């Protein structure tokens, strides 16, 4: 009988380290994960280990819960359609305060505690992520104006590449800027995908509460370790993908179509889920590829 050497996991990890060294990843962390200090610190520890293996990293963060809480405190009406927030000028101001304030600063603290030289930014800085205001759209037969929401036109990677070359980790809040220099609220999944495309990364990660993409959303045992675009289309047509997973799948499809090697949906709750996904053959979540 053949038994695995205790050094086999190290050999497996070394293989992946050689493959990914000096090749950037983009990691998008959901706001519901970041709201928990212990989870926040755990994820930052994993990111620090990736960084120690010479894998450049760009982190994009959400913060929907923090925005909701502040809007409630300020007595502002805020709601979403198809996983995307309708943003009035007042809600935009609250979003700026929540995301560039508490959420990003708490994340920077956790990253710096983990030993990372993290730099807080948004797409407004150096006009890194350019956008235009989204035109009204029709959803379920009704015209919807999303307000101060941006659809991305282009990403200028100059600042990001400068920071990465210096060993820094850019941490980006999901705001973009239009031709008039006005700031627009933009879905964080879309921002992460656009940056991944512009940097030509091998891997784009979405860190979420669930273990990965589930074929039955209410059954945690229905995890799909691997999916391709054909499988995603089938899940969408069957109504399996809904809510906050909709913009993630839209972002995944755009990233893969533009040449990103793979998109990964991983848990922010399971211990070392990101590291397991990167450095083991089995993985921990769902890897999405263009074709399987």
Descriptive terms for the model:
292 residues, two-stranded antiparallel ribbon, Carbamate kinase, eight-stranded mixed beta sheet, 10 helices, globular
What is the CATH level 1 assignment? Alpha Beta
The CATH homologous superfamily is termed Acetylglutamate kinase-like
Total count of domains: 1
Q: What can be said about the biggest beta sheet?
A: 8 strands, mixed
Under the CATH scheme, which architecture would be assigned? 3-Layer(aba) Sandwich
Strand content: 15-25%
Helix/strand/pairing class, anyone? alpha/beta
Task: From the 3D structure, determine the CATH topology.
Answer: Carbamate kinase
Tell me the distance between the termini: 32 Å
Strands ordered across the widest β-sheet: 5-10-2-1-13-15-16-14
Low-confidence runs:
none
Helix-strand blueprint:
Blueprint: H1 8-20, E1 25-29, H2 31-34, H3 37-52, E2 57-61, H4 64-73, E3 80-81, E4 84-85, H5 89-113, E5 118-122, E6 129-133, E7 137-139, E8 142-144, E9 150-155, H6 158-165, E10 169-173, E11 175-177, E12 183-185, H7 188-199, E13 203-208, E14 226-228, H8 229-237, H9 245-257, E15 262-267, H10 273-279, E16 286-289
Parallel strand pairs: 1-2, 1-13, 2-10, 5-10, 13-15, 14-16
Antiparallel strand pairs: 3-4, 6-9, 7-8, 11-12, 15-16
Helix pairs in contact: 3-5, 4-5, 7-9
């Amino acid at each position: 009988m053949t038994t695995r050497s205790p050094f086999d996991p190290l050999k497996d990890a070394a293989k992946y380290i050689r493959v990914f060294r000096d090749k950037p990843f983009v990691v998008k962390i959901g706001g519901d994960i970041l709201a928990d200090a212990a989870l926040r610190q755990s994820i930052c520890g994993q990111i620090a280990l990736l960084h120690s293996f010479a894998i450049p990293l760009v982190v994009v963060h959400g913060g929907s819960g923090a925005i909701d809480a502040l809007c409630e405190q300020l007595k502002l009406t805020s709601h979403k359609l198809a996983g995307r927030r309708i943003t009035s000028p007042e809600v935009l101001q609250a979003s700026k305060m929540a995301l560039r304030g508490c959420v990003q600063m708490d994340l920077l603290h956790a990253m710096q505690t983990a030993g990372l030289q993290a730099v807080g930014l948004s797409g407004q800085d150096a006009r890194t992520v350019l956008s235009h205001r989204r035109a009204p759209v029709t959803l379920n037969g009704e015209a919807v104006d999303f307000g101060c929401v941006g659809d991305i036109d282009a990403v200028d990677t100059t600042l990001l590449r400068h920071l990465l070359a210096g060993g820094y980790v850019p941490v980006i809040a999901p705001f973009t800027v239009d031709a008039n220099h006005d700031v627009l609220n933009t879905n964080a999944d879309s921002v992460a995908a656009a940056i991944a495309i512009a940097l030509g990364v091998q891997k784009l990660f979405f860190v979420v509460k669930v273990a990965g993409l589930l074929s039955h959303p209410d059954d945690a045992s229905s995890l799909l370790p691997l999916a391709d675009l054909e499988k995603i289309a089938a899940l969408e047509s069957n109504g399996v993908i809904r809510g906050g997973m909709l913009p993630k799948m839209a972002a995944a499809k755009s990233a893969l179509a533009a040449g990103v090697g793979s998109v990964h949906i991983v848990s922010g709750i399971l211990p070392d889920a990101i590291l397991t996904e990167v450095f083991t053959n089995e993985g921990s979540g769902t890897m999405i590829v263009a074709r399987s």
